[in-house]
Structure to design on (323 residues):
């Protein structure tokens, strides 16, 4: 219902919209605009769910996922579980431009990023460290485990599947419904 | 998560995402955002879409790919997004998630899964009719 060009994205991150629009206005491609908009959010840590210093994993580390896709060539670049590099969508763009791959993940994605000139730096902040220590203080609740012991809805790990425990004949017996979530 | 789609005035499309994922995830967990067809998808022949929400669930349905395929068959962006949400609802009625869709003429829409604490989804639009970025809302279904 509206003429082109169009920038559309999730959540009210207005600066990201502006960054993408500015890129188009200055002659950038659609791909350039997507990269600029997402990178703006990475810098600004949009609502704590984008960029460094948010959503720590169980070990307290922030890791990043990003992708970028060119709808004209169907070229895609993506990184998953990217560690210690802030500009995830920038690395995804390098995967698109400098490899024939689509998705690079984890520590090796970090090595690739370093080879492309990205800085290796700690993605944790006081905020993400505080989130993690609060989580530990609340018996690691919520978490993403099920069908393990000890009861993940009550205790921190490390966790084991019940079958391993049974094999080593431990006295611990599974009792009742220990899923603890939907 | 930010999921973004851009339709250039020439009709070229692009899509992308960036996120730090789920809080307190098991180390090594990757969500839907970096997976083409899940976090985002774009095709000049049909349009582009992007998703946000519980990636562990949403990626199983390749929501952005599915939305583009609905638009390829002529659905409006809003209906395309709604049909994707409905598909996931059947299996996971309480999932947290939303999808944005745009076709190559610049029409756009969004849809989300209604939960007690999530009844509206907010997204941003900028096009040649809005002289500045505009926040829009959609009621979840």
């Amino acid at each position: 219902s509206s003429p082109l060009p169009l920038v559309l994205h999730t959540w009210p991150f207005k600066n990201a919209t502006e960054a993408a629009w500015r890129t188009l206005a200055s002659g950038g491609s659609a791909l350039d605009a997507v990269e600029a908009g997402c990178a703006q959010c990475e810098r600004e840590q949009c609502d704590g769910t984008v960029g460094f210093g948010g959503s720590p994993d169980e070990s307290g580390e922030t890791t990043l996922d990003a992708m970028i896709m060119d709808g004209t060539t169907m070229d895609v670049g993506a990184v998953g579980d990217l560690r210690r590099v802030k500009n995830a969508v920038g690395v995804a763009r390098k995967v698109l431009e400098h490899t024939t791959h689509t998705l690079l993940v984890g520590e090796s994605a970090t090595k690739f990023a370093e080879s492309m000139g990205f800085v290796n730096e700690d993605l944790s902040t006081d905020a993400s460290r505080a989130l993690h220590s609060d989580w530990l203080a609340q018996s690691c609740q919520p978490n993403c485990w099920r069908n393990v012991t000890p009861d993940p809805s009550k205790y921190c790990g490390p966790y084991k599947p019940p079958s391993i425990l049974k094999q080593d004949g431990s006295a611990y017996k599974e009792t009742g419904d220990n899923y603890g979530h939907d | 998560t930010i999921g973004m789609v851009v339709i250039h005035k020439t009709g070229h499309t692009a899509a992308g995402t960036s996120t730090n994922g789920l809080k307190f995830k098991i180390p090594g967990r990757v969500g839907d955002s970096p997976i083409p067809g899940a976090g985002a998808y774009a095709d000049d022949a049909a349009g582009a879409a992007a998703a946000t929400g519980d990636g562990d669930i949403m990626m199983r349905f390749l929501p952005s790919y599915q939305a583009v395929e609905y638009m390829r068959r002529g659905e409006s962006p809003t209906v395309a997004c709604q049909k994707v949400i409905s598909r996931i609802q059947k299996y996971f009625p309480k999932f947290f998630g939303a999808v944005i869709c745009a076709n190559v003429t610049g029409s756009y829409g969004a849809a989300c899964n209604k939960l007690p604490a999530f009844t509206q989804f907010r997204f941003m639009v900028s096009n040649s009719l809005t002289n500045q970025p505009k926040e829009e809302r959609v009621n979840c279904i």
In short: The beta strands of chain B are 2-7, 13-19, 40-43, 47-53, 97-103, 108-112, 120-127, 134-139. The longest strand of chain B covers residues 120-127. The longest helix of chain B spans residues 77-91.
